[in-house]
Predict the 3D structure of the following.
Amino acid sequence: MPVYLAGRDEDIENISEIFEALNMNIPVQSVIFSGLRGVGKTVLINKLQKIAEDKNIFCRHIEVEERNDFVSQIATCAQAFLRKVSAKEKFKHLIQKPLDAIKALVVSFDPGENTFSLSLLEKELYSSNNLTQSLTEVFITIGETAQKTETPICFFIDEIQYMKSGELGALIAALHRTNQLGYPVMVIGAGLPKIYKMLSDEKSYSERLFLYKEIGSLTEEQSKTAIEIPAGKFGVSYTEEAVKRITAVTKGYPFFIQQLCQIVYQNTGEKKITETQVEACLEEFFESLDRGFFKVRYERCADSDKKFVFAMVKCGELPCTISNIALNLHKSVTSISTTRAQLINKGIIYPIRYKELDFTVPEFSGYIQRLEEYREWCKESKR
Ligand SMILES: Nc1ncnc2c1ncn2[C@@H]1O[C@H](COP(=O)(O)OP(=O)(O)OP(=O)(O)O)[C@@H](O)[C@H]1O
Ligand SMILES: [Mg+2]
């Protein structure tokens, strides 16, 4: 959590109003934040969770991971809700129905809980359609309990792009039905830019079910507060030129601002930081990004992924088209489509508009250009 969360006041205000409505047992729209890596999605939803908890809304945070199981996570959250409700004697009779629904979901879909292997017939029985039914049953029954006990629920789901198609479809359908029945259950989700398309591909009505908000880099004014306010707490200030330089170098990306300011703060003993002092830290700043933020993403790429990434960078301008990437690789568009899908799944690139692609990591192409491996590849592909 940053010392000061810059530039998100409007979002916080809007969502706080939604929480107010939820608290009045009014069904509300769920919210989805999308944005590039390091733009501040997680810290924003964490902040919103604190606000919701202060309003006595029952909250749970789920981080979807590439290889974990969403069903068991949501089941655990629903169970936690029932535990909270059943602490009051007068509500005890309200938990059996939802508890049964959770059990049915877990027994059928949680691979961790399943000690027996399923027969072909059983597998067919537990198809994605049934997942939708089971999850909907869980949402409806906990929704009903939430309404009767006046305990609204908000699930915070981060890294939505890693949800499997069946899971996402089931979640949307369950939420939709709960909403139709007027139960106070909502989701605040966050993920990479491709989630917008994932949701609408899954269910066309998801466009009405969710309020979409794209979050991006900070404006000059917002960056200024992100730079100055945390430093101010330590009695440190920046000259106007220093702030401008930091904003220009970081392009207003919150993570970059934080990283650069941290290095500047560590390397400078003065109470007033100048542009020259910022300048002196830039090399270390880029090195630290190259060693951390960029490198972890790059290392998730297989050899074929890396070549695809190089070919994107070689296009010169981003977003770029798949046909230009194919051209740079001396391959056909069809033959590179698996690599494209793989990189999208890994959350390294995302599709924009028709057939165009970009990186989910801001300033990634600058990093690639600094790589020896990229320069070698360029030389070779010229031959
Ligand atoms: N509005 C902001 N003001 C100041 N600092 C911020 C802000 N948003 C994010 N940060 C800082 O930037 C960093 C990245 O934020 P965060 O982890 O929330 O990004 P993210 O969008 O979730 O990235 P990822 O897609 O990789 O999960 C954090 O260290 C956070 O403290
Ligand atoms: Mg995050």
In short: The chain has 18 helices and ten strands.
